Every structure is written in structure tokens, then in C-alpha cells.
Amino acid sequence: MSRRSVADLTDVTQPQNVHGWERAGSLAAGVVLVGKGVARGGLLGLLQVAIGGAALARGYTGYSKTKDIFEKGRQDLDAIRARIEGAGAELQSLKDSAVAATETTTVIGEDPLAPK
């Protein structure tokens, strides 16, 4: 996992995947969690400060690695679904073609593949 520097956090050319109310909510939640964590102190307070800091960074930069991973997974699943649907349509087309071909065909004589 690569670390992002402070310069990366302030770079506005970085891709953004958190927008609007989601971004504002991340900032607000980050401020609240950092404040509560500092007030609480101890190990749980430190955990709150860390989570709040991550939420603040997410809101400030407009980028979430976790959201990026989930979106990539969603895109992969959508691509797989499209391929499966395409294969299903192709199979249906082949079946329809085979049925149409056998409806107009008459077999005369012995079928060498028929059971005896």
C-alpha cells in the first residue's frame, strides 16, 4: 500500500471519487470524531482520532481508496454480467437456428446414430 504525502493531499489534480454531501459529511464526521477522541483520551480516544483523521482526509481530498476498490469491483462484476448475458443470447440464437434447421429437414433411410 502506497503512502500519500501532504503534497499529494493538497494536489487538486488527483482523481476525486467523493463529491457533494458525501464529502461534506466526511469532513463533519471527521471533525466530530477527532474532537471526541481528543476529549476522551486513552486508547479508544486515539482510535477515534485516527478514524476522524481518515474521514477528514477523505473529505478534504475528495478521494477514498476504499470507495475506489469497491467501484472497481462493481465495474468488474458488471463486465462479467454483460459477458454472461452476451453468451446467453448467443446460445439462444444457436438454439433457434438449430430448431429452424431441423424443422425443414427430412431424414430418409437409416440413422447411423440411432440406437438399435
Automatic annotation (TrEMBL):
Protein's name in the database: DUF2892 domain-containing protein
UniProt organism field: Pseudomonas typographi
